[in-house]
Each structure stands twice: as structure tokens, then as C-alpha cells.
Protein 1
Amino acid sequence: MNNKSYPIHLLSVTSLGVLLVTLNLSSLNVALPELTAHFKADALESNWILLSYMLFTSVLILVFGKLSDIYGRRTLYLTGLILFTIVSLLCGLSPNVWTLIILRIIQAAGGALVITNTTPLITDAFKQKDLGTALGINVLVASAAQLLGPVVGGYLIYMLDWRWIFWFNVPIGLIGIIWAFIILRPVPGKLRGEKIDVIGNLCILFGLGGLVFAFSIGGIIGWNTIPVIVGGSMFVLFGAYFIWWEQRVKYPSIDFTLFRDRTFAMANLSTFLNSLARSSVVLLIALFYQVIYKENTFTVAIHVLPVTVGMIIASPIVGFLSGKYSTKLLSTVGLSISAIGMLLLTIHTHAEASTVWIGIGQFLVGFGSGVFMTPNTKSIMLTVPVEKRGMANGLRSMLQNMGTVISTAFSLMLVTSVLPPFLKDSIYQGVNARVTEADMSLISNGFQLAFAVMTILTLLAIAISFLRDEKREEMIIGTIQATIHPTKGR
């Protein structure tokens, strides 16, 4: 294979990986009530079917980002595909809910290996003039997977059973493994000799785990209970120690010197806030239609399509526009569109709501996020030295996934926090929930509260995105590209 065609073939490899991992996560958003019913899970167990995967993905992405810089991306990417495919098969054989949760943790390791190496592989292979389009295609594939995941998952559960939301990953994984073995070139790591920050990563795991546990259980048993206090205390103590430790360890998990660049700092913070606000939209809408409207999984999957349709439409558009307009402008405009969508969802998620307005709100959230993500990712990846791209992407992915796991726990906590104890489990029971009209009104209030808070978070993300230093960003990108492609333009 010649050098000219390699980037395109590599993009096809990474697209299969993104498709595999994203399909798995998005299909579970509509499947949660079915899993809850099958395993007779309570509210906490239902939460952790989703949260276990998200939590460990968030932590392991940072670890694997550093490993890819040390040992190279090909081996780790292939390892991730193989592990993810094998565990997907095993998940469908789970005899009980806690076996499934443990397998989801192992599956998270495979998914983190794939996610961590995808963007650096693309960034290394494509020239700057084509990078925006390539990253746009990457986002487009992820958006398509988010679109297909609920539909495929809902259909398979409706026609077969819950096991197939894991088993349908297996053939995709096998194709991806074979294709990656053929296409990917061995590339040695650029930071050989460095070591993994074990203590730092354990601090992230226990600190973030404590916070997520507190959110996941606080809305169920109350905020002044010992488990919630312990979880919150773990977050504060491990978080403080992590910041102290990272300033002193020789090979830190997070290179805090990168945050001295305002553009890098603001781009990453807006990534986190966008993920925190947006990530639970599909899950909440899916639960809303199942509990309030008693829709089956396949019909619910159709109802949540507007989010990913919006992202799919936005991705190629912003890939084209990224070469004409600044990342600051595109990112901020994208977040502003999402904020309008969040506001519509806040207003219209009630028992007598128009499904049209709910659909429009979802579409705007997805379209705005699609406009935001590509230029923001490009900004992050091109404002760091080449040898630290794995770490930078690991940090970006960790913040995005951290936003996702906190968003899931936080939003479900908001929904259940306004409910009396006898109604809290009904959120996870879907069509099986026995609720009266008065109960539906209370449940609707919970959903509206969650979307109101997410609207505020999106407004905060807009302000943060606008604070990035546009002139310095352009200067850094120009300097890096002149170093990577010194003969460009001759």
C-alpha cells in the first residue's frame, strides 16, 4: 500500500473501531428497562449496568493514552478490538446482574484502548489541510453508530432478547480485527522510557468512582446518608491528593503544563461541559417515552433518532467549514444551538407534550454538538507537541467520558430526587412501571428539572468556549504544521 492511500485505509480501520464501541454504548440506552426486568435489578444495580462501563472507560482512557505514546498505537488498538469482541460474547452469557457489571468493566478496557488510539492515528496520518475532514468523518461514523445503536438494540430486544445487544457486536469486531491486522503499520512509541503513573490513575478511579457512586445512590436513599457522604469524601480527598501528586511525580498521568495554554485549557473544559450536558439526553428521552408513554423498545429507538440525525448532518458541514472559520467561532456557535435544543426539552418533557417539539429539541442538541466537536477536537490535537498527542487525546477522551458518566449518574439523580420513595424504581422499569396520572406528573417534573440543569451547563460551556485565545491558537497550529510539513507550499 502506498503512502498516498494509507490515510484513507487507516480511516476505514478506525471507523470500524468507533462503530463497534459506539454501537455498544448507544444500544444500551433503550435496553436498560429490559435488562432491569430480566435480572430483577433494583435502581442502584440498574444504574451501574451503565455506569460501570463509563467509569472505567474514563479512567483507562488516560492510562492507555500514555501507553500508546510509549509503546505505539497499532498493538494497543488491536488488543482493544480483540478484548472488546470477546467480552461482548461473554456479556450475553451473564447469569446475573453483577456478573454482567464485572464483564462491562472488562469490556471498558477494550473500548478505552480503541477510543484512545483512534484520534491520534488519524492525526498522525493526515495532513493539516485534510485533518478537519478526516476528523469530521470520524465524528460522522460515531454519530451514525449512535443513530443505529438504539434502533438495532431496540429491534433485537423486541424481536429476540437482551443478549443480542451484546452478541451483534461480535461480527463487527471480527471484521475490524482482520482489517486492522492488514492495514495498520507498526509505529514505535515516541516516549519510550517513560512510566505509567499508577498512583495518579488510582486516585482518578477512586475519586471519580466516589463521586459517581454518591450521585447514583443519593437520589435513591437520601443525601445525608453515610454511603453518600463517604462517596463525596472520597472524591474530595483523592482529587486533592491527585493534584498534589501530579505536580511532583516524574511521569504524571496529566501534564498540567499543557493547561498553561489558554486555548488548550478552554477547549478541554468546554469538551467536559458539553459532554456533561449532552450525554444523557438519549437515555433520558428513552426512559421518558417508556415510562410516560409506555412505548416498546423499538418505537422508543425511533423517538431518540433526532439527536444522532442532527450530529450526522452537522459533521460533514462542519468538516467543510473548519477550513474557512475559526474553531472558536464554530465551537461556540455549535454550543449555542445545543442550548436552544436543551431549552425546548426543558419546556416540553411533560405528560401532554408534543412529540414534535421533543424531536426538534433533540435534533438541535445533536446538530449543535456535531458542529462543536470536530473543530474543538482539532484545536486540542494541533495545539500540543506531536509526541504528546496520545496523552492530549487521552485527556480529551477522559474528560469527555468523565462528562458522560457524571452526566448519566447526575441526570438520573435529578429525575429521582423529586420523587417519593415508592416511585424511584419506576424510572428504570419502563413499560413495566405501574404509575398513575398523578405519578406521571411527578415523574415529568423530574425530567424537566434534569433538562433545565443541562441547559445551564450548556450556557456555561458557551462562555468557556468563547474564552479561548484565537490568535495564539492560529500561531501554534501554524508553527506545528510548519515543523511537520516543512516543504508544504514549495
Note: The mean pLDDT is 79.
Protein 2
Amino acid sequence: MEEKIMVNKVRIEIAGSRYVIATPEGEERVLSLGREIDAQVRQLMDGNDRVSLNDALVLCCLNYANAYKKSEESADNMRTQLTDYLEDATLARIELDETKRENERLKRRLEMLGGSEDGQTKL
């Protein structure tokens, strides 16, 4: 059975232009993103009279692409660190198990040689 994905149609406005976005995301999230982009575009245009709407949109895209790449690199770095930590934990667990086995082997050997459990040698 095919799962049906709910699609919302959300109207946003960026620098006076209206857009209808079809998305599975919630309406408030899309509206929030639209407001954020609108504010950035307006700020770029207000800061320099020679920046066109198209220029401001391209600059916004570049800013978002840069932020996205940085977050991807950060996530990759965290995944690598987690993998390293898991490998270290696995090695520590193996060493612990080996130490426990060696401890048990030495206890049995001590018992065979006449030692008692309290560490005293019988005379």
C-alpha cells in the first residue's frame, strides 16, 4: 500500500513578490522561512541601491548554501567523532572482557596451587 504524503500549499511574499509553495512541511515553518528570506533580501537591497532583487536573491542563496555546507561538514565531523568514540568503547570493552578472563584464569590457578579465596596461602 502506497503511503500518501500530505502536501500543504503555503503562500509567502518575498520583497513584494508572491509565491505559492507546495510542501510537506508545516505552514508555520514555511511562513517563518519566507519571512526570514524576505528580511534578508530587504536588508541587502536597503543597504545598497545598486543591488537588484535578483542580486539580493542570489546573495541570499549563496549565504544559505554556505551555511548548509558548513552544517554538513560539522555533521560529518560529529559522525566521525562518534564513530571513533564507539570504536574506542568497543576496544575498551574487549580489553575489560580479556582482563576478566585472565583474572578468572589466575584465580583458578591460585586455587589449584593451594591458595584460598581471601588471598592467603594455606600452609
Note: The CA atoms of residues 9 and 113 lie 82 Å apart.
Protein 3
Amino acid sequence: MFYKAGLDIGSVMAKAVIMDNDKVLSYSIMPNRGSFYNAANNVLKEALEKAGLTYDKLNIIGTTGLGASFITYPHIKNTEVACQSRGMNYLLPSVRIVIEVGDQSTRVIKVTEKGRVADCVINDRCAAGSGRILLIISKVLRVNINDLGNFSITSTNPVRFSTSCSVFAETEAISRIAEGIKKEDIIAGLHQSMAIKIYSMIQKVKIEEKCAITGGGAKDLGLVKMLQKIIGKDLLVPDEPFISGAIGAALMAAEKEVVFT
């Protein structure tokens, strides 16, 4: 048995996976609640409990994400882009373009057949291009963020957002509400704006036949469908989009051939 853990401690969510060789035994996902340190400890503890293991049984731990530097136990850290590339290659080996829509940024990664990064474009200058704008608009519209997709797919007339700034997008959404525009049309318009931005990013690395989406944005059916419409291709979605980075962290740590004893 060779047990390895992978942790992806993001700006909002902490994710952990436990693997035995190349098999995922368990995973855990939980909000950070303002503490990277506590989130990293708690998410690993829960994943270990689900796998029926204890910390001392782990051979190696791989980490990634904004909060990885707050982890105090021995670990091997790799970049988020590299871990996403490796993790998505594990989950969906045929994919060559990975679209990661996270809270802080959106990344488009071109992946080799071995799961390495061939090219990458990152949009992290403004929240309008990331999942953060979805959270902002959900609060403005008083719609649960998990229900945005269901609203969006019922829209028949998406609103056109004229701004690329999250602050102004919020203001614009409030104005649309005052004008009596339906919530579903506002949400669909936001999804359309995001999809156009992401498509422009994809064009920079050149589109491939097999594309996938991961991160929190992959759980938004409205965004996924709008992206498919704009890109003109079906998007593959992992069964659990949140854990691809953690899987990549575990695999890459093991490939460095360093074992903790």
C-alpha cells in the first residue's frame, strides 16, 4: 500500500483527497471560514476518516493553492496550474484544454497527453472573469448561488452586460432589477459575458477537440451551457470538479519520489 494525500487550499474552499497508488479512496471539501491553517487540518482529518486511515499511514502529502503555505506538517507543494493539469489528466485523459473557473481567477490550460502544462492563460485582474462575480450577483439578486444555473437556462432574452468590471457589473445588475428585468435574463447575461471572456482566453492557446471545465464554475449548469454555445463544443465535466487540483497535488508529490517516514 502507498497512501498519499493531496490538498488544495483555495481562497474559499479547502479540498483533500486520499489515494492508494492511483485509486482515490476518499475526499473532503469544506469552506475555509477565514483560517487556512484550520481548514487544511480539518479537511485532511475528514478525508482520512472517510478512508479509514490515520495520519501516520500516509507516505506522502502534496499541496497546492493559496493557503498551502499555512500547512505545518511535511508536504510537497506544487503550483495550482501544474496540479490542475495533472489532476484533470488523471480524471479525463483525453482532454487537452482545461477551463478552471475558480473564485479568484479563471485559467485556460493546454494539457499534454502526459498531463503537463503546454500553455496557460490566466485572467486574475478582475473578479468579473472569475467565480467571485457569480457570488456577488447571487447576493444582489437574492438567489442561492447553487440555483444560478437553473435560472439561467430558462432565460429567453439574456441581458447584455456592457462592462468588464465586477464592481460595475454589480451596479449594472442592480439597475436591471430596477428596470424590471427578469432575474433569469440577468443571470444568463452574466453567464454570456463570462463565456465570451473565457472564449477569448481559449483562442490565445488555440482550441482543441476535447475540452473540460473544472472548479466551482463547473457546478454552474448555466455557465457550462453558455460556454458550450459560445465555444461550439461540448465540455466534459468531472464528477466532482472541486477535487481535480488536490488529485494533481497528490500525484505530483508521489512522482517526486520523496517519502515521509
Note: The mean pLDDT is 91.
Protein 4
Amino acid sequence: MEILMSQFFGALYGFLAIVLGAFGAHALKKRFTAEQLSSFETGVKYQMYHALLLLMLSFNLSFNTTLETVVISFFILGTLLFSFSIYGLCLTGAAGKKWKWLGPVTPLGGLLLAGGWAGLIYLFIKDFVF
């Protein structure tokens, strides 16, 4: 089940990164400030990086441990919170009605992504160090 979840979200996030990246580059370019466009692009980049990571991990992890499942869950939820809160902040800011409550969501997503990477590091070194 975790393999399918990882593959599904990897493919979904990859697809949406392409669509949102094109949308940002073409439709939003004239509506966004340079700062908003840069932030939007950061969200797209991180989303694509983690889409590819989810796909790679789905083919390389056995998902026999709770830690492997937690790592994947952190990447899925972290990407959602990080990238999509950035999109929301940029879009609502450009409309003049910025949803400020999304501000704290972005670092929470980043923290989950960092936690996923830390868990991945542990998975790779645990047999050699501990």
C-alpha cells in the first residue's frame, strides 16, 4: 500500500508541478511581483524534487519498517504543506487578499521535508553506525 501511495503522490506532484510551473510562467507572470514569481517557482521546484524522490523511493524501499513509512509520509505531507501554502500565499497576495494564516504552514511543511530527509539519512546509515 505504501508503495502505491508513494508512486501515486510522486506522479501527482510531478504532474501538478508541470501544470503549475507553466501556469506561473505564462498566466501569472504579469500578475505577480518579481518576489511572488520567485516564491511560486520555489514551490514548483521543491514539489518536483520531492515528486521525483517519492518515485525513486517507491522503487527502492521495501516498506518493511515503520520508519520507511514515516519518511514517505513526511515527504508527502511536507510537500503538500510547503509548496501549496506558497502557491496560496502568492495567489491570494496577487489578488490583494493575502491569506496570512498560510504563513506558518510553509515552515511546518519545510520541517516535515527536513524530517523526511533526516529519516532517510538514518535509514541509510543505521546498519553501519548503530
Note: Residues 62 and 84 are 29 Å apart (CA to CA).
